[in-house]
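Contributing: when you submit paired examples, paste them exactly as shown. First protein:
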Amino acid sequence: MNNTAANTKQSGAALVVSLFILLVMTLIGVSSMQTTTMEEKMASNTREHQQAFEAAESALRAAEAHIEDDVTVTAGFDTTGSDGHYDNSVQELWRTLGWDNTDSLADSSYTSTYGSAPAPRYIIEHYGSATTAIDKFNLGGYGTGAGGGDVELFRITARGTGANNQSPVFIQTYYGKIL
């Protein structure tokens, strides 16, 4: 039979080509898995940042409500800030602050829908009074119907974190109120 003679002439080229194709497919699969893993991490970080931003916005609104409802005098604003109220003697205080229970105020109305995220926190710094028309230039509308008086300026710094508490977001704004 001639089958034996035909088999001895085969050099295994199909095996080599098949192994090469398998190697290329394996490399494509590993590369795809690495890309997918990186995209998952990016999506997770984006979600975490968005959660932290929403929490900080909530704390910012709580601070504005706190100023509007509870701040009637500025005598309690000092350098210790044990109640979350500070004067403006320390520049960029929010960078060095511990953001624990004694240094800042918590937004007690905040409820996270993303797991066990801690309540966002905020501090309020009293910046002084806007006494002249030039100082009040960017504060149009404040004092309408409230009578005369100087506008007291406050800087609010809010800090929020996402569900894993590892990506803080800080938001700052200025707020004016006639006391």
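Second protein:
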Amino acid sequence: MEFLDQIICDDCLEIMAQMPDNTVHLAVTSPPYNLGINYDLHNDNLAYKQYLDWMRRVWLETKRVLVPGGRFALNIAPTGIKNFRPIHHDFANQLREIGMIFRTEIIWYKQTMGRRTAWGSWKSPTNPHIVPSWEYILVFNKDSWTLEGRSQDADITAEEFKRFSDGFWYIPPESQRRGHPTPFPEELIYRLIKFYTYRGNVVLDMFGGTGTVAVVAYKTGRCFVHIDISPKYCEIAAKRLELARAEQELPFSVSRTGRQVKGTFLFAGATKLNSRKKAKKLKQAQLLEPTEVYELEE
């Protein structure tokens, strides 16, 4: 596939339309919530019907590119107290209407209550508010509950399987935002990839942001397709991916040192902007950040 293992900077609908049918095993994303969040190069304040119509087109393309039995893990938070809309229900209804199988929902418990309050009415039933300290991961299948694969490519451990099959996941939010307002923590993506895919499968994030899905897919021996409309976010994703490659290729431990490593990413038309550094040359480059390294079972 043309876009395999690439950081692609373009509109997700335009790129997904060029992807072949039945080529993705897992799609993982958190779409813009349409709450006026300050994303780079995205209008996050559409009329609600326009927003839902746009997202439905994305879901249709997602279903098309998934293999039979392929999974879609959709991260969505309850909307704010003001002008509340049950966006998670609306998305679930859309996906069921286009024929996706609603498999389960995971509660991602973030425990962020200590940083904000929204009492509404204090110590009174007059108008008390509930502040969500969780987000949902809604999981859907295409056509079948079963994803075919070789047993030797299933790399989840017994302990991981037991822990991840409990649908209440306590994972703190990502502390390193890297210029993005709502980045995924790597642990969240690691669990979804290990639980729902085999090694060598293809993982798609059509709103890829700063590249967490691509990085974790690479670290766990999966292929990836990262799409985001923002050159700023794509450049950050490319640098993170280059660091992950360096950590696995270099014969020594990589840690924070400070100088920047050049990345590789694509604009529309698949034009390469920077050539990838060879591992031996990366010795002389200083790296931006420490990241987790996942050991792959042979």
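If you have annotations for the second protein, write them as plain sentences, like these:
The CA atoms of residues 255 and 290 lie 5 Å apart.
The chain has eight helices and nine strands.
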